[in-house]
Amino acid sequence: MQIRILSLACAALLPLLAHAQVTVTDPWVRATTSQQKATGAFMKLSPATPMTLVSASSPVAGVVEVHEMVTQDGVMKMRAMPGLPLAPGKVTELKPGGYHIMLMDLKKPVSVGEKVAITLVLENEGKQRQEQVVQAEVRPLNAVAAPAAPNAHQHHH
After folding, report:
1. Beta strands in the chain, from DSSP E residues, in sequence order
2. Where are the alpha helices (DSSP H) in the chain?
3. 9 in a domain, yes or no?
4. Closest residue by Cα to residue 135 from 120, 117, 157, 113
5. What's the CA gap between 113 and 138, in Å, rounded?
6. Residue 118 near residue 56, CB atoms below 8 Å
7. Which of 7, 34, 46, 150 sits at 20 to 30 Å (Cα–Cα) from 124?
8. Minimum mean pLDDT among 93-102, 107-116, 139-148: which range?
9. Among residues 103, 105, 139, which one has the least CA distance to residue 119?
């Protein structure tokens, strides 16, 4: 009986999930040193309908902002964005050197292997907001993308 009730409850929630949300793939956060008070979060976002990433939050950081890297007068600068438009059917990649989420005023260092909860605040064309929680894996300080395959050989000369 409990399984049937649970099945019905899940079926009732499916339209909400389908209506909402952005598909999030490969979420990760760069590890920090003990003195570091900020780090970046990265992921790939793909919405089913036009959405805008308007803000984010995380229990590990006092301040969380959506940022972009831009080149002005030959100098790379980072700046906060009021929102990042996400087009349906396209993947928007948040990556080092591009769009990303800044986790600032860190409450403690983040270490490799931990998971960091990040709440994305998304807005649809009707200005309705929804939250989506992402669990981001913490990767090494020098990480730039997905980790190498477990048996990949690295040569140091």
Report:
1. 22-30, 38-47, 51-57, 61-72, 75-80, 84-86, 92-94, 100-106, 115-124, 129-139
2. 2-19
3. no
4. 117
5. 5
6. yes
7. 7
8. 139-148
9. 103
HSE value, Cβ hemisphere, 13 Å, CA-based, for 116: 35
**Quick check: 50 and 92 in contact, CB under 8 A?**
no
CATH of the domain at 128: 2.60.40.1890
pTM above 0.70, yes or no: yes
> Which candidate, 44, 8, 40, places its Cα nearest to that of 24?
44
Amino acid at residue number 52 = T
d(CA 127, CA 72): 32
The number of folded domains in the chain is 1
Residue 62 is assigned to a structural domain of this protein: yes
- Which residues touch 135 (CB under 8 Å, ≥6 apart)? 27, 115, 116, 117
- Average the pLDDT over 45-69 and give the result: 96
Q: What confidence tens digit (pLDDT) does each residue in 114-153 have?
A: 999 999 999 999 999 999 999 999 999 887 655 444 433 3
Asked whether the beta carbons of 80 and 69 are under 8 A apart, the reply is: no
